[in-house]
Design a protein that fits this description.
Layout lengths: L24 H13 L19 H15 L6 H11 L2 H4 L1 H11 L6 H29 L5 H18 L8 H17 L12 H7 L18 H15 L13 H19 L8
């Protein structure tokens, strides 16, 4: 007898997709060509770009040679770079003078070197994220490690990426002077206005010109002199009167205690403005 029962077909497991690591070889070539064209362009890149950010090994060799010349205060051009590469035994590996000449001719100007360098940096960051993701996945499968420790390690891996990228660019003195001049003009044109956020304390605002983005203000005093109350008052004024978002960090008081102090201050403020309302909490 013929069995006509349909048979269940086994599903073929999905095949892994091989993806190429992110890279931008054209941007790497543009960066190196810019440096060979104008060695001074490197001063705009050393604050954030590293040799390890280049995808091709020969490009890492060339950029590192330029960095070494920069550290020695030596000129950076096609001759000095080729000499440095030859001394390290890498000249033939990068393609010789022919490849360096091709890099030099690939860009008409070094004016956009910083833009190209950021493209290289971004793809390097993407590759690092992929690497870290793989490490985190392997860590998650490790049954001998506690979950809390896994989370801590994973957080550190991701945090290290951001830390490596928090390098401040060099600022030309002319740019700093221009920024200062603009600030002086704004102070002159808006003498009666605050350039920063009001603290809610008139005399303090007159001295500081309001709370500025770049300022770190430390309030010091003996215990019990009202530092916390003063800080909470500023926080309240900024949040309620200036409609700005604030954050409070305290190593001494819990969130509940801070809220209680803040509510007490608000109640006292209402009582002072409206004498008929009791301010006790």
């Amino acid at each position: 007898m013929l069995d006509t029962t349909p048979r269940q077909r086994l599903e073929t497991p999905p095949q892994p997709i091989e993806r190429q690591m992110p890279s931008n070889v054209e941007a790497e070539q543009a960066v190196l060509g810019s440096l060979l064209l104008d060695g001074e362009a490197l001063t705009r890149l050393v604050g954030f770009l590293r040799a390890g950010d280049f995808y091709l090994e020969k490009h890492r060799w060339i950029f590192q040679a330029a960095l070494d010349l920069h550290d020695r205060r030596a000129p950076i051009d096609i001759l000095s770079v080729s000499t440095a590469l030859d001394a390290q035994g890498h000249l033939a590996g990068v393609g010789g003078m022919a490849y360096l000449t091709a890099l030099l001719n690939a860009v008409p100007t070094a004016a956009h070197a910083e833009h190209y360098a950021h493209l290289v940096e971004h793809t390097a960051l993407e590759r690092r994220l992929i690497q870290v993701s793989t490490e985190i996945a392997e860590l998650a499968y490790d049954g001998e490690v506690e979950v809390k420790e896994k989370i801590q390690r994973a957080e550190k891996l991701v945090y290290d990426i951001s830390q490596q990228r928090e390098a401040r660019d060099l600022i030309p003195i002319q740019k700093a002077v221009d920024t200062w001049a603009d600030r002086m003009e704004r102070l002159r044109d808006h003498e009666a206005d605050l350039l920063g956020v009001s603290s809610g304390f008139v005399d303090l605002d007159k001295v500081l010109g309001g709370l500025q983005k770049s300022d770190l203000i430390i309030v010091a005093g003996r215990p019990g002199t009202g530092k916390t109350s003063f800080g909470l008052s500023i926080a309240y004024n900024v949040a309620v009167k200036s409609h700005k978002r604030i954050a409070i960090f305290s190593l001494e008081m819990s969130a509940a205690q801070l809220v209680e102090r803040l509510i007490s201050q608000v109640a006292d403020t209402i009582a002072s403005e409206y004498p008929g309302v009791s301010g006790a909490v």
